[in-house]
Design goal:
Number of helices: 7
Helix content: 10-25%
CATH class of the largest domain: Mainly Beta
Number of domains: 2
Distance between the termini: 79 Å
Radius of gyration: 22 Å
Order of helices and strands: HHEHEEEEEEEHHHEEEEEEEEEEEH
Shape: globular
CATH superfamily of the largest domain: Pleckstrin-homology domain (PH domain)/Phosphotyrosine-binding domain (PTB)
CATH architecture of the largest domain: Roll
CATH topology of the largest domain: PH-domain like
Largest sheet: 7 strands, antiparallel
Strand content: 35-45%
Length: 306
């Protein structure tokens, strides 16, 4: 007789399975997962008070390998420990060396990707997927990477947020995303919206079939960052609107240049190149946006050369 019939394994409920995908804040060294303690001991073993440490469990994600990670901020350093192949890999980023932070959210599937140069001089990009319900644990780390909040009066701040009012009729979702992406105290020097660009494929019985070649996106230039927000190609579309979005936060100090070039007869490539050699971020715009893109280029040069 199969012994499992007499001693059945406990059935894990759906709620418990969901909780296993949730990131959590680690309150003490004793609370660390056992497989991380040896690697983290030299850094976290005796430190008081215990810093902000987040455990991101291995969760299934269509984009990235799912591995356990520990994230931690100590002083001016951002630690990422990753359990891979039975051992822990350690990556340490000085905050000033982080050249790009990507945030993505599609329903309960979220992720952040940290890119920059480590203390060992290695250019790395590390994705950290997590359940959207646990975003609160990551916020202190995200806020540390992005510009510090500067208090300003209600009216001046509302004036900055009003720079996105033009999107209310074009795309309300992106207007909301733009406002939420702003850090209080930052001034908007330029903003440009690009709806999805479609390519005609075929017409059958009077019905036109098109293919989206460029997803909708928005670029925002502030005094300290270039913010790029776009739809995600893996998200589902409902009545012409896709769920969620992707945000790129790029410090001005890490941008080498903003370069404009032509793509065909009616499109432009707006290329963001990085000081540290990271692959450029290329954005496609309609040629009708040429003057606005040139204005953003000029504003960027003024900010960069201050």
């Amino acid at each position: 007789m199969d012994i499992k019939l007499n001693n059945p394994e406990p059935v894990m409920t759906g709620t418990k399975q969901t909780l296993l995908t949730w990131a959590r804040k680690i309150e003490s060294f004793a609370d660390l997962p056992a497989n991380f303690k040896t690697a983290c001991g030299p850094v976290l073993g005796d430190i008081q008070p215990f810093p902000h440490v987040v455990f991101a469990p291995a969760i299934q994600n269509i984009r990235y390998p799912y591995t356990q990670k520990l994230l931690c901020e100590i002083g001016n350093l951002f630690y990422i420990w990753e359990f891979v192949g039975g051992k822990v890999q350690t990556s340490i980023f000085p905050f000033e060396n982080i050249s790009r932070l990507e945030m993505g959210s599609i329903l309960l599937n979220s992720w952040m990707t940290v890119s920059g140069v480590t203390t060992e001089g290695v250019l790395l990009s590390i994705p950290i997927p997590f359940n959207t319900a646990t975003l609160r644990h990551f916020l202190p780390l995200i806020q540390r990477i992005r510009p510090a909040v500067v208090e300003m009066g209600g009216e001046p701040w509302q004036e900055q947020l009003a720079r996105f009012d033009y999107l209310s009729l074009k795309n309300f979702k992106f207007m909301s995303f733009a406002r939420e992406s702003m850090v209080m105290g930052q001034e908007v020097f330029g903003t440009i919206w690009q709806p999805a660009i479609q390519r005609h494929i075929i017409t059958i019985l009077g019905r036109s079939f098109d293919d989206i070649t460029t997803l909708a996106h928005l670029a925002i230039l502030t005094g300290t960052e270039l913010i790029v927000i776009h739809d995600d190609e893996t998200s589902e579309e409902n009545r012409g609107v896709r769920y969620g979005g992707v945000w790129h936060y790029i410090p001005i100090r890490h941008i080498r240049s903003l370069v404009l070039s032509e793509k065909g007869s009616d499109q432009l490539i707006f290329s963001v190149s990085f000081e540290n050699g990271t692959s450029p971020l290329d954005l496609i715009f309609s040629s009708s946006n040429l003057s606005t893109l040139q204005q953003i280029q000029n504003q960027f040069s003024l900010i960069k050369n201050k």
